[in-house]
């Protein structure tokens, strides 16, 4: 269906651009992954860019949904609100080196589009200024900028946009053309790219994003008319170096000029809540520990990316600077997808695997011990469908059982399952609505029996498990149990508020009594970090004294949002 072009850079244009960019990166993801040789030949740049933009698009949609339900006259947010949401979503969802840089590019644009106290920059001049700020902000965020990378492509796009005259569509097309020409030149700037016969993967991704910007304002997908155009017409960002690259191109990237085989062993990424001064000190310390350092963000929230040999020291540096969370550590090991240098022997797929979303570090460890591939969902930060698809791929199985463990993730998990099926993976989605239901399903999982039988057994076990949680109300609201006030303790049974109390332990006891009134054989308790120290002992004593032949098992979930999760089966 043809895209209706936007005239000005308003909130609707931001929304359209994010959607088109996500679609473009989805189409180009495998191609970009295949040409990924710098700074590490880890074959995931396309996937990381896709996940970063997916997070940005999700945040923008959330702002539109909020305004539609609010008091705005037309239900449409301002440009500033949409731009800030785009930048924030990209920041918290940034993946990998290129994704982190893309997040800073979007943040730089938002700094212009969401400027306070001035008329909105909705015209061509505003777009040009935003692209300039984006390129400059991204370059400042990288500790040691290297030419022939996405930074060069971004700068060229901004330079070309500055010389364009006309409307937003004209500026976008000029930026896109300048980016294509810069991308075409990257093999001449980095020997590792020339040797592999490819252009820079991050720059290729940015060209796709800028092509989406052109489509936003013109309604047409541009076709590159540069010197590598062949008789069939080369689509967006596909110069000769890309078209001649094969799937094994990254294998020769290990060299002494920018992608050394003896580079750092780990990639460390985390979100960080910290003050500017502390982040300045953090940059200096991480720069001394490793390379590929990119720190993006501001206003108290940062995304930190670095390659190091001592992953613990990189995390400790974050702890000294502020509060790091959503910590991801990837080992560039010989048997890992991030391996560099030698040819890799494809790992044989296992027959069956379980992929589960879990709300805390403690449960992630428990699920992993049981053989599941886990996706950690932080409070208020649900995983995107692309992250679930990535976990399914990481499981490397012919058959996958997917446990979302959250009713709100049902549609996200369904989209991920559909995409994985399109890649030839047999996926069964069990609609678990709580981590305790997932535990019950995992307990009866038997990978050596027929797939359908295993799925039926796991589904039955999950369905036979009632679930509850004890949490604290953040604001006044109407509930099934009456009106609650901020600070009240809430007991939710099967997703609905059943008890409103003042004490965590007393509320938990009441919830447990209601659940066991219908019978049960096993009670599962999952404690959050902020749960009272005595709550597990009190509940175990109550079960032992009041409910004969009912067993209790206790797990520590870590930072999981709810104070307590309860399962009865």
Report the principal-axis shape. globular
- Alpha carbon gyration radius: 25 Å
Largest sheet report: 6 strands, mixed
Oligomer: single chain
Question: Beta-sheet strand percentage?
Answer: 15-25%
Give unreliable regions as ranges: 225-261, 333-345
For the largest sheet, list the strands in their spatial order: 13-12-9-16-14-15
The SS-based structural class is alpha/beta
Calculate the terminal CA-CA distance, rounded to whole Å: 49 Å
Number of helices: 19
Mean pLDDT: 83
Helix content: 40-55%
Counted beta strands: 16
Tell me what the structure shows.
By secondary structure, the chain is α/β, with parallel strands linked by helices. The protein is built from 19 helices and 16 strands. The chain has helices spanning 11-34, 45-68, 79-93, 96-113, 124-141, 150-162, 168-189, 191-196, 201-218, 240-243, 276-289, 311-321, 361-369, 385-395, 410-422, 435-443, 451-463, 504-516, 535-546; strands at residues 266-273, 290-298, 301-308, 323-331, 350-358, 373-376, 397-403, 426-429, 466-472, 477-479, 482-484, 489-493, 496-501, 522-528, 551-558, 564-568. The protein is globular and about 80 Å long.
């Amino acid at each position: 269906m043809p895209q209706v072009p936007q005239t000005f850079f308003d909130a609707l244009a931001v929304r359209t651009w994010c959607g088109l960019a996500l679609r473009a990166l989805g189409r180009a993801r495998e191609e970009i992954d295949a040409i990924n040789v710098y700074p590490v030949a880890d074959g995931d740049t396309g996937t990381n860019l896709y996940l970063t933009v997916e997070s940005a698009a999700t945040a923008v949609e959330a702002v539109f949904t909020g305004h539609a339900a609010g008091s705005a006259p037309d239900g449409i947010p301002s440009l500033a609100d949409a731009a800030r949401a785009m930048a924030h979503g990209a920041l918290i969802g940034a993946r990998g080196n290129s994704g982190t840089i893309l997040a800073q590019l979007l943040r730089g644009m938002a700094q212009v589009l969401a400027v306070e106290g001035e008329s909105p920059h909705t015209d061509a001049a505003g777009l040009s200024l935003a692209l300039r700020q984006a390129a400059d902000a991204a370059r400042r965020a990288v500790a040691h900028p290297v030419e022939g990378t996405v930074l060069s492509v971004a700068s060229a796009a901004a330079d070309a946009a500055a010389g364009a005259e006309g409307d937003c569509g004209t500026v976008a097309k000029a930026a896109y053309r300048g980016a294509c020409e810069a991308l075409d030149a990257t093999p001449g700037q980095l020997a590792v790219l020339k040797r592999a016969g490819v252009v820079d993967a991050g720059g290729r991704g940015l060209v796709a994003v800028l092509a989406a910007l052109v489509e936003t304002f013109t309604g047409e997908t541009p076709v590159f008319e540069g010197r590598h155009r062949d008789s069939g017409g080369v689509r967006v960002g596909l110069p000769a170096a890309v078209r001649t690259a094969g799937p094994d191109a990254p294998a020769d990237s290990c060299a002494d000029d920018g992608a050394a085989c003896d580079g750092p062993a780990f990639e460390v990424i985390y979100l960080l809540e910290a003050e500017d001064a502390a982040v300045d000190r953090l940059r200096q310390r991480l720069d001394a520990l490793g390379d590929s350092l990119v720190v993006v963000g501001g206003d108290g929230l940062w995304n930190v990316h670095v390659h190091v040999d001592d992953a613990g020291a990189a995390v400790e540096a974050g702890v000294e600077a502020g509060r790091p969370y959503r910590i991801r550590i990837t080992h560039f090991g010989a048997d890992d997808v991030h391996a560099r240098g030698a040819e890799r022997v494809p790992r044989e797929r296992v027959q069956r695997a379980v992929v589960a979303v879990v709300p805390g570090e403690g449960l992630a460890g428990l699920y992993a011990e049981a053989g599941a591939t886990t996706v950690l969902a932080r409070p208020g930060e649900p995983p995107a469908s692309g992250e679930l698809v990535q976990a399914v791929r990481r499981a490397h199985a012919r058959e996958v059982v997917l446990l979302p463990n959250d009713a709100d993730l049902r549609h996200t998990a369904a989209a991920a399952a559909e995409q994985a099926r399109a890649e030839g993976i047999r996926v069964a989605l069990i609609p678990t609505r709580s981590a305790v239901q997932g535990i019950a399903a995992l307990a009866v999982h038997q990978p050596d029996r027929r797939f359908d039988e295993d799925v039926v057994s796991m589904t039955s076990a999950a369905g036979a498990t009632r679930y509850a949680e004890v949490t604290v109300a953040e604001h006044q609201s109407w509930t099934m149990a009456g009106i609650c006030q901020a600070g009240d303790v809430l007991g939710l049974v099967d997703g609905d508020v059943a008890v409103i109390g003042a004490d965590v332990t007393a509320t938990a006891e009441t919830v447990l009594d209601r659940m066991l009134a219908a019978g049960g054989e096993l009670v599962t308790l999952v404690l959050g970090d902020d749960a009272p120290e005595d709550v597990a002992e009190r509940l175990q004593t109550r079960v032992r004294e009041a409910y004969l032949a009912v067993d209790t098992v206790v797990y520590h979930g870590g930072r999981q949002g709810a104070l307590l999760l309860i399962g009865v089966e």
